[in-house]
Amino acid sequence: MLCQKCGKNPATTHIKTVINGKVTEQNLCSHCATNSGYSSLGGGSISNLLASMLGQSMQLHRQKEGGTCKCCGATFADIAESGRVGCATCYSEFEEELLPYLKQIHGSVNHTGKIPGSKELVITSTTDPIAELKTKLAALVATENYEEAAVVRDEIKRLEGEK
Amino acid sequence: MASWYIETDKLNEIAVSSRVRLARNLKDMPFPCRMTKEMFASLKNRVKTTIDELASEGIKLRFIEMNDVPENEVGAMVERHVISPDFAANCNNRAIAISDDESISIMIGEEDHIRIQVIVAGFNLEDAYKTADMLDTALGERLGFAYDERLGFLTECPTNIGTGLRASVMLHLPVCENNGDIASIADAAGKIGLTVRGMYGEGSKAKASLYQVSNQITLGISEKNAIKNLNVIVHQIIDREKQSRKLIDRVKIEDSVMRAFGTLKYAKLISTEEFMKLISLIKLGMNEGIIDNVNISPIRLLIEAQPFMVMRKYSVSTSVERDEARARIVGEFL
Fold it and tell me: Does A119 touch chain B if contact means CB atoms closer than 8 Å?
């Protein structure tokens, strides 16, 4: 479907507005959506989004004993509805329910950053040049700088060949 | 050192400011969403005692109860990026500790117990992080932060868990915005775990073509790598803006810039919206050497002409009075 506003680009954003009970729907391309104040720049509330994600695991949780956090008294339902965790202990109390969502949000469930108590900043940094170049490549491709991207891609290939 | 928005004009760059924020919670207290008024009082007391202790180590921060701050000043603090709009929206029970130049601000009782923020002029995430890390260590040693070996620093919202780090760079991108590149830049940034948002963060629309690029992922990536990734994409975006600027008709830009200059210099009433559009052109004009022999600080002016900043300085209340005061401030600057 083409954008209903400019009629040139493919429509990628579906916008539904309800004003005084009247529903209007529009299909716009990313350019027109941005100009109309929509798009990823506007952003939604992260905790709302999270709440809807967590809500899906409520059913699973209900089948088990519905416990409450021994520290703050939050139930998993409280967390799922608000998208907000009650206290530090909740993370261990509801570990089974929360871990899949942490994985979904961050793509990982293992902290690799600073460890408190260590005087020096502890960074488990990748001194791996290939990983570094891959990030650079992703950024170059993302910003459509294909010429430089090709150079970086060849460099990665060369380094991987050396391994 | 002066505030970031004064220092940044000396640099005259596309990257306006760099900010680092660390989210931290005390391990023996529920997160703010489940705290009582008494708990907030206790939290503030404990942080205040710690802040007082830090003074003897040369870290001088001023502790302010938000209930004591007049409404206009709260708004002006948001406009200067000292506090977040979320923090300002409900100041009850909250407090802040800030440095004299406002480069350091520690928000107490926001979504997390403590939010350490460091903001510096230009593109310099490394220095901002170094200061934030130093403060985090100093506060953490005394207060004891909620931390899990596997999950890192624990936060009220799971989107901040791990490092609790949100690093962002504010960029002035008038040409990329005008030619529609911003949408594809935002999409591209999203693919590598970064977001592009308006000047005042989550949910805000871009004004004066100022965009914040920040990291989203905080678990499974170290602080150093998150900052490194952000640096790579920010360099790319800056290059893209620079390249795009070369392609536009010079006379057209000069015309727009000089018209903006004329309006700002001689207008008697300037609304925030009109001001933001025009000041963006002035900054573009200065970066591109179109306006050169005039001593203007576009970003300083941009911050000082924000609604609450104007109301605070001139004790005006109606929008007409405000627009008139703004025109006066702007006229004096140019």
Answer: yes
